[in-house]
Amino acid sequence: MNKPRFSLRTKLILTFLVVIVIGGLLTLFVGFRLIRNTLVSQAQAKVKHDLASAWMVFNGKLHEIQTVISLTAKRESLWDAIQNNRHDTLLRYLGRVRAESGLDILTLTDSRGRVISRTRNPGVQGDDQGSDEIVGQAIERGVVAAPQILVREELLKEGQDLADQASMEFVPTPKAAPRAENRETSGLVLKAAARVLDENQRLLGVLYGGVLLNRNYEIVDQIKGTVFKDEKYKGRETGTATIFQNDFRISTNVVNERGERAIGTLVSREVRQAVLEEGKPWIDRAFVVNDIYITAYEPIHNINGRIIGILYVGMLEKPYFDTADRVMLTFIGIAVLCIVFLLAILNFSTIRIIRPLEKMVTATKEIAAGDLSHRVEIESRDELGTLAESFNQMISQLKKANEELVMWAKTLEKKVQERTQELKDIQDHLLQAEKLASLGKLAAGIAHEINNPLGGVLIYAHLILEDLQEGSPHYRNLGKIVKETERCRNIVKGLLEFARPKEPEMILTDVNEVLETSVSLLERQALFQNITIKKVYAPHLARIVADGAQLQQVFMNIILNGAEAMEGNGLLTLKTYLDEPGGYLAVEISDTGRGIGDEDIKRLFEPFFTTKEAGKGTGLGLAISYGIIQKHSGSIDVESRVGEGTLFRIKLPLKREAAHD
Fold first, then answer.
1. Class of CATH domain 503-653
2. Read out DSSP for 471-494?
3. Beta strands 203-212 and 187-197: pairing type?
4. 8 A C-beta contact, residue 531 and residue 490
5. How far does Cα 150 stand from its chain's mean position?
6. d(CA 422, CA 418)
7. Cα(587)–Cα(566) distance, rounded to whole angstroms?
8. What does CATH list as the number for 7-338?
C-alpha cells in the first residue's frame, strides 16, 4: 500500500485552517463594510443637523438686515428729512447707519421708487428701483427680506468696488458640469426693504439695504465656528461651509491645493442636477474641490421662489474612514492572534485523535492477516473509545457471521427450490392464459359456425309449434326443442361476448346511479320477492370514467348470482365507498347464500365453469364480467365461506376526465 501524500493529521489541520481563514476573511470583509456604512450613516445624520444650524446662521443674518432696515425706516428724523428735502441730512444719517450695521448697500427711494439717496455712491440718483422685486413687494407688504442676485449694472450704481467684489472668473473643477462662459459679474446679496411712512401712514418712500455675499466670509466662518468648533484633522479643517451663487462658490472656507479659499470653483455635476435643476436636497458623499466630503446641500430661493444658489455644509470624510481602518487593523490583529492560538489547540487535539486511530489501523492489519483474537485497547470514553469498543464487537460478530454464512449455504438450496416452484406456478398461469386465449378464438369460430344453423332450427321449430294444437302428442316435445335451442343460442351469445368483447365507451359515470338502475331492473322479479336488499351508498360519490352499460351488466350478473345462491330468501347488501389514498372506487355486493368452496373460488372466473346445477348456467357470466372490469383497469376480489355467504369486491380506478367524448 502506497504511503499517503498527506497524513490525516496534516489534512485535519489544513482543513480547519482553511475554514478559519475563509471565515475570518468573510467576517472581516462584512465587518469592514458594516463599520464604514455605519460611520457614513452617522456622519450623514450629523451633517444634516449641521445644515439646519447653518440655515439658522444664514437666516439670522438676513433677519438682522431686515431688522436694521425696518427700525431705520421708522425713525422720525428720517421722515422729517424726506418731507423737508434735506438730502445732506439724509445722506449723513443713512451713511452712519450703513457703517454701524455693516451693510454694503443702503439706499432710499421716493414713493414712486426713484432713488433720492444712495449712501455708498451718492453721485448716482434718480434711477427707478420700483421694478425691483424686493422693493416692489415692500411697497405692497411693508417689510420684506430675501436673497437676490444683482446684475453688474445695479452693482455699479451702488459702487465700482461692489461690482469688482462680485466679479470673478470660474476656476476649472474636477467632476463639474462644463460652462460656456468663464466669468460671472453679477452678485448674490442678502437684501431687505421697508416702506417709509409718515405719522399719517402716507407713503414717503422705500428704504432698502443689503450685504453682498461674494467674497464675504462672515457667514461661512460663523457657521464653521458655531457648528464645527474650528476642529482640524491632520492640519485640515474637518468642517466647511459654502454659499453658492447658482453653481459656483462665492463665499467658502473650503481651501484649494494652495491653501487658499476655493472661490470661483464649481459644484459637481450630480449635485447641480439634484439641487439646482430638480430642487432637491443632497445629503451624500461628494467630491468637493480636491477631496471627498460627507456633504449636505440645499437650494437658496429668491423672494419669488426661484432657485438662485446653494447653501452647503460638509465634513471631511477621511477622519471617519481612518477610524474604520484603525478598527479593522485592530480586528485583524486580534484575528491573527486567535488563529495562532487555535492552531496550537488544533495541533494538540489532532495528536489525541490520531494516536488511537493509528492503533486501530494496526489492529485491522492483524485481523486482515487472520488473527480474529486481536483486540483494540480502549483508552477513553469519548467517540474514539466508542469506536474502539464497536471495533472489538465487530470482531466478535465476524465469527457469528461465518456460522451464519454456513447456515445460509444450507438454506440457499431450499430457497432456490421455492423460487423455482414460484416460477413454475407463474409459467402455468401464463399457459392457462394462452389456453384461454386459444379457447376464446375457438369459441368465436364455433359460435360463428353454429349461430346461423341454430337460428334456422329455432325459427322452423317455432313455425311448426304454431301449426300444432296444444293437445297434439308432438307439441310438448317440440316445445322442449324450442327451449333447448334458445338455451343453445344464449350459450352462443355468451361465447361471442367472451371471445369478442365490446370496447367500453368511456364517459363520466355515476356508479351509485348505475348500481341503483341494476337493482331496479331485477328487484321486481319473482326471485327477489323474499330477498331483503340493503343499500349502503357513499354520498356525493365522485364520478369516474367508465362504460355504464358494461358496468350494469357486471352488477346485474353478480346480483342475480347472489339471489340464486340464496334461493330467493336472504339479505343482499350493496355498498359503495371511495378510497382516495388508494386511488380507487369500490363496489361490494354480498349475499347470505350457500357460499363457495376454496377450490371453486380459484376457478370462478374461468369460462364454462359454474357451481349451478346442470342446465341452469353457461359458466360465461363471471368470465365476461372479469373481462369487462379488466378493460376498465380494475379488479374483482371474492371472499366466501361455505354456508355463510359470498362477497364480491369490485375496484375501479379514479379517473375523472375522459380522454375523448
1. alpha beta
2. TSTTHHHHHHHHHHHHHHHHHHHH
3. antiparallel
4. no
5. 58
6. 6
7. 20
8. 3.30.450.220
Beta bridge partner(s), residue 18: none
- The DSSP string of 527-545 is GGTEEEEEEEPPTTPPPEE
Report how far apart, in Å, the C-alpha atoms of 523 and of each of 167, 535, 593, 594 are: 119, 13, 17, 20
Please tell me the distance from the alpha carbon of residue 450 to that of residue 455, in angstroms, as a whole number: 8
Residue 613 burial class via C-beta count within 10 angstroms: exposed 0-12, middle 13-18, buried 19 and up: exposed
Residue 190 has pLDDT above 90, yes or no: yes
Between CA 415 and CA 37 the distance in angstroms is 75
b/e code 391-429 from CB counts within 10 Å (16+ = b): bbeebeeeeeeeeeeeeeeeeeeeeeeeeeeeeeeeeee
Q: Which residues partner with 255 through β-bridges?
A: 261
Length of the chain, in residues: 661
CB distance 458 to 482 below 8 Å: yes
Residue 72 near residue 90, CB atoms below 8 Å: no
Domain range list for the chain? 7-338, 403-500, 503-653
Place of cell 439706499: 107
**Alpha carbon separation from 480 to 265, 465, 466, 474 (Å, rounded):** 130, 11, 14, 10
Band of the pLDDT at 347, cuts 50, 70, 90?
A: confident
pLDDT at 608: 64
Cβ partners under 8 Å of residue 451, min gap 6: 489, 492, 496
The amino acid sitting at 279 is G
309 by DSSP, 3-state: which?
strand
Detail the DSSP E strand segments found in 151-281: 168-169, 183-184, 187-197, 203-212, 232-233, 236-237, 239-245, 248-252
Instruction: Answer left, alpha or beta for residue 609, where phi above 0 means left and psi between -120 and 50 means alpha.
Output: beta
DSSP 127-172: -B-TTSHHHHHHHHHSEEEEEEEE-HHHHHHH-HHHHHHH-EEPBP
pLDDT reading at 329 higher than 80: no
**382 in helix, strand or coil?**
coil
Name the architecture of domain 403-500.
Answer: Orthogonal Bundle (1.10)
Taking residues 93-116, report their average pLDDT: 92
- Mean residue pLDDT across the chain: 80
Contacts 24+ apart (CB under 8 A), 199-204: 199/76, 199/79, 203/111, 203/139, 204/79, 204/82, 204/83, 204/110, 204/111
Q: How many CA atoms lie less than 13 Å away from 137 in the CB half-sphere?
A: 12
The Cα–Cα gap between 576 and 551 comes to: 14
Paired with 239 in beta bridges are 315
> What is the C-alpha R_g of the chain?
57
- Residues 6+ positions from 104 with CB-CB distance below 8 Å: 120, 158, 162, 189, 210, 211, 212
**Rounded Cα distance, 368 and 366, in Å:** 5
More confident residue, 544 or 365: 544
CA distance 177 to 269: 5
Q: For residue 183, give the 3-state DSSP assignment.
A: strand
Q: Are 335 and 24 in contact (CB under 8 A)?
A: yes
Q: What is the pLDDT of residues 14-28, one digit of tens each?
A: 777 777 778 777 776
Residues forming beta bridges with residue 524, ordered by sequence position: none
